[in-house]
Specification:
By secondary structure, this protein is α/β, with parallel strands linked by helices. The protein is built from 10 helices and 9 strands. The chain has 2 domains: 13-223, Rossmann fold (3-Layer(aba) Sandwich), CATH 3.40.50.300; 239-300, no CATH class.
Length: 301
Amino acid sequence: MFEKATRKRSRLRLALCGSAGSGKTYTALTIAKELGERVAVLDTERGSASKYADRFGFDVVELSNYHPRKYVEVIEAAEAAGYDTLVIDSLTHAWSGKGGALELVDQAAARSKSRNSFAAWREVTPLHNELVDAILGSGVHIIVTMRSKTEYVLEDNGRGGKVPRKIGMAPVQRDGMEYEFDLVADLDQAHTLVVTKSRIPEVADAVIKEPGPKFAKVLAKWVGIGEEPPPPKPKELTADGLRAILVTRMQAGKWEQKEAQDLITSYGVSLADDLNQTQRREIAKILTTQTGPEWAKGARA
């Protein structure tokens, strides 16, 4: 029944919390760079991550609807496509954004005769749990950012007056969400990182001004310690998951719609839904390792 516990290499689960302007996205990309070469970003912040594309190499998919299952599709697509790290910027929208959990509760309550939001949570909680399970069960490193509730405090300005200072409070997400992660840290307006929860002894209770590659290397070393874990059981790549990969590559300027359609057609079908599992994985590999022009040139040869 019992066996000796052994330390196995793991995939990082990191949450960065802070108010706007605290440096969550930049810090997430800095850390992701040290965890592996291939980085994907799920961007709900209207393209904010892409403003750092001159400093970091990554592929991006932008969501306009934040239903928890949209997040799950991207997480599964990132794993199927072989990315090392997925940055979710931000996870807050899955809670309070358009199509997120709170909006789904309001819609479910409106549909019910009782208009009872407590009853509506019975419908929505499994969807949110599905997202949490996808984050924890993924075979890629996952870094999430979460917006913090913002409050202002008055401080002495040294000249006998008061000045307001913006501070971040609790993250905008389900209560207790921070317990799901290996490391949780708050970032303030001075870009100081404060570790508030850690399974990584080397950085427990750390306070770091403008965390950079040195901090990221500590995390990369931690996830690499231990025995090689057994390979994860391959997950089904759905048609929606394949489409999510395609959207990511199109937004990165690597593929055009016609090139992707020609690729699917080369398998004897016209829709991603008609592909079998092996074909979907083959196409996912082509989409993420080649550009559309490269594939088209090879197809014509």
